Amino acid sequence: MKTGPGFVLALAAALALSAGASIAAPPSGQKGQKTQTPSVDISQNATFGSVSLSSGFTPDPYRIDMYSGGNVDATTVANGCVGMVATAPDFQLTYNAGSLPLIFGVTSDNDTTLVINGPNGRWYCDDDSGDGTNPLMSIPDPQSGVYDVFVGAYGGNGAAAQLYVTELNSNAMGGGDPQSNYAGAVDPFEAANYGTVTLSAGFTPDPQRISMRAGGSIDAQNIASHCRGFVTRAPDVELSYSAGSLPLILSVEANTDTTLVVNGPDGRWYCDDDSGNGSLNPALHITNPMSGTYDIWVGTYSSGMSQPARLDISELYSN
Predict the structure, then answer these.
(1) Which residues pair with 200 in a beta bridge?
(2) How far is CA 140 from CA 46, 96, 170, 177, in A?
(3) What is the SS3 assignment for 5?
(4) Burial of 78 per CB tally in 10 Å (0-12, 13-18, 19+)
(5) Global pTM value
(6) 133 and 173 Cβ atoms separated by less than 8 Å
């Protein structure tokens, strides 16, 4: 009888089983196949929307509220990338380039990262070039085309974040010349001194009240000629507002002469000195408010002062 290789292998297996050995089977549910590693997919629709911008766009910065993180390890996307990102892009920018740089940054209370696929297929990545643990990425000579943007979470724990796109202020999130390109060196990119408030039309309680100290070292007239008072570099409060049919009313209550300086979602500067209750308190009544981010500074009319104050946010009345 002929004994080929198949017979020898079968005999060896039979002898092994008779000796009490076992032959390992593929793990349950895998059927002997390798587990596929999650990966990004730039062909998917962006989770938090898309926009087309041309060089010189306004308002600048363009901001997008979102949530960081995902189940894809960015180190598998390209060399130098870190953090956990989503499969689909978080945001898609179609950009018509000019002579200005293109700058992406993120603000968040958590450690975030940036992973961007450019029009030429190149991957751009950053971790901590911005303020604290936030990323900042400047592309000096950007190409026209589509930029797919992923906002990652360094430790894997996703959190609320805001992506911004700008052509003007590469130092907004830290580093370099401390004088930003914003007049008077106020900087709406910096974290608000007294935090972020998120409100939708019809919010309760109304008014929302934030206690703070008014004043700073920057002359508000350097921001816009109709502004008054002295404010800090960073906003005092950042309001993320979803508008409805009601007006948006911002006012201050203080025992000293205070002012209001507000940068709206459209990039417009709203300012007031003495329109509120009493002769020295400011109030701003925005009849048809836009949805978006309002950066709010509470100033003191005289320089060198830091005074207790209260900011009221309302849709019904001032103070």
Answers:
(1) 242
(2) 25, 14, 10, 17
(3) helix
(4) middle
(5) 0.51
(6) no
